[in-house]
């Protein structure tokens, strides 16, 4: 049986719509591990900004995240996202579709993925788990007339995009962030080679990718920072005086104590975020007689350990954990704070930050930030100019930096203003979404029109 070749391309910037006839807006498909994940705001708001620029974005999550809290803007995207279980009649029908029409492509890409992930139980099991779903994605994306597939994270989402590409001919790209590069770079060079282009969120990460993939890959890897909306995260009218109205009750309660230093940390409760170091620093500040309150926003696998450490240190009156909060609440807490702290650390497993988006949010809010001299963070925070950087796990240096800023309101204001300028110049969501959209248009992307039989099969539910 001779295998049919994928349909021939026409340019992303034009072409026929999947239904035929009139020209349509470019259509992208986004693949991510989980959606809507409250800690991955950069994915949600990047999608919304690309749509504001005129692109159509279809969302294909590998898993549906069911957290109790979500950002309000996520609801409309969730309502139209293409969620699938790991196994269903539609999943099985997609396997049969490609086994009958493109059997060689089906078996080749399965073998390709298994060869690339072999040796890592996590990657092999994950690849086998997502492969049937990725095959279904390929069928649906062709029927939708998707022009380009973009994956967030270089691990399983990039594998899924590779499977879609091999089966449908739709070009793909992916964004590599932090821990998806630093723990295990299995199959990374293969993915970069197969992709139309790859994106790194920092120059530091780009060099990691080039060392892994070879110098020939350098021009194929583009730096596009994540970004935030400076209009959403803006300084309050008076920073360091009266607290902004509308902050959560915890913030309002301390508004009568202007001499109390307000610290804030917004981060998933996982080892890489450095909560242990922050709590140790808070213990030192208390011993020194510094009046402060530290609010923690977030949740995660280290929650019990963090809560236990707070209790063991006797810091229950100074350190308050709020759990997960949506973006409007986070914005109000940022407006009520004096200093933002994120003492990120590398984990024993090699996990590292990329450039934390929450640091961008804090800096856009005019807050002075204290973070770690690690990974891509110095590309955002210039030590002594737009924030303060200390060595990872150095709780004494962290406490010293916080105390010094607490005693110098004028310096806090200067650092906060410089931080906001830095975000506006280099980490603005709209500017960076425009750069990404330009890559989609210029990076060899192309529309693959689905055969009418495939469109009709998907729309009718027969596959």
Tags for this entry?
single chain, 463 residues, alpha/beta, Rossmann fold, 2 domains, six-stranded parallel beta sheet, 14 strands
How would you characterize this protein structure?
- By secondary structure, the chain is of the alpha/beta class.
- It has two domains: 251 residues, 3-Layer(aba) Sandwich (Rossmann fold); 178 residues, Rossmann fold.
- Helices cover 45% and strands 14% of the residues.
- The protein is built from 19 helices and 14 strands.
- Strands 3-2-4-5-6-7 form a six-stranded parallel sheet, with helices on both faces. The protein has a six-stranded parallel sheet with strand order 10-9-8-11-12-13, with helices on both faces.
- Strand 4, helix 6 and strand 5 form a beta-alpha-beta unit.
- Helix 5 packs across helix 6.
- The protein is elongated and about 75 Å long.
- The two termini are 22 Å apart.
């Amino acid at each position: 049986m001779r295998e049919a070749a994928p349909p021939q391309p026409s340019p992303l910037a034009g072409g026929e719509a999947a239904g035929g006839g009139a020209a349509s807006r470019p259509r992208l498909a986004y693949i991510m591990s989980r959606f809507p994940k409250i800690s991955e705001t950069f994915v949600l708001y990047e999608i919304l900004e690309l749509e504001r620029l005129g692109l159509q974005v279809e969302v294909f999550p590998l898993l549906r995240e069911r957290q109790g809290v979500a950002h309000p803007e996520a609801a409309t995207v969730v309502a139209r996202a293409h969620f699938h279980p790991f196994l269903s009649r539609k999943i099985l029908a997609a396997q049969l579709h490609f086994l009958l029409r493109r059997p060689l492509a089906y078996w080749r890409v399965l073998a390709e993925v298994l060869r690339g992930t072999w040796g890592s139980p996590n990657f092999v099991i994950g690849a086998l788990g997502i492969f049937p779903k990725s095959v279904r994605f390929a069928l649906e994306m062709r029927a939708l007339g998707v022009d380009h597939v973009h994956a967030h994270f270089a691990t399983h989402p990039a594998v899924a995009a590779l499977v879609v590409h091999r089966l449908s001919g739709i070009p793909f790209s992916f964004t590599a962030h932090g821990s998806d590069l630093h723990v295990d770079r299995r199959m990374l060079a293969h993915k970069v080679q197969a992709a139309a282009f790859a994106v790194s969120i920092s120059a530091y990460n780009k060099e990691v990718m080039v060392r892994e993939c070879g110098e020939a890959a350098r021009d194929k890897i583009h730096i596009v920072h994540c970004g935030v909306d400076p209009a959403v995260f803006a300084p309050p009218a008076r920073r360091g005086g009266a607290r902004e109205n509308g902050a959560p009750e915890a913030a309002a309660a301390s508004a009568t104590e202007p001499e109390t230093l307000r610290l804030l940390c917004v981060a998933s409760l996982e080892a890489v975020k450095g909560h242990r170091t922050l709590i140790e620093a808070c213990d030192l500040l208390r011993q020194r007689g510094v009046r402060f309150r530290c609010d923690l926003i977030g949740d995660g696998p280290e929650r019990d350990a963090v809560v236990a450490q707070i209790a063991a240190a006797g810091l229950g009156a100074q350190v308050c954990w709020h759990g997960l909060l949506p973006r409007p609440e986070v914005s109000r807490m940022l407006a009520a704070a004096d200093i933002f702290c994120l003492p990120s650390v590398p984990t024993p497993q090699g996990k590292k930050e990329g450039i934390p988006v929450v640091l961008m949010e804090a800096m856009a809010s005019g807050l002075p930030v204290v973070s770690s001299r690690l990974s891509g963070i110095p590309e955002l925070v210039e030590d002594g100019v737009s924030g303060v950087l200390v060595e990872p796990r150095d709780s004494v240096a962290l406490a010293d930096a916080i105390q010094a800023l607490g005693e110098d309101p004028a310096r806090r204001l200067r650092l906060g203003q410089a931080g906001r300028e830095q975000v506006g110049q280099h980490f603005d969501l709209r500017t960076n979404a425009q750069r990404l959209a330009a890559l989609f248009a210029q990076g060899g992307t192309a529309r693959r029109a689905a055969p009418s039989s495939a469109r009709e099969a998907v729309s009718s539910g027969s596959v």
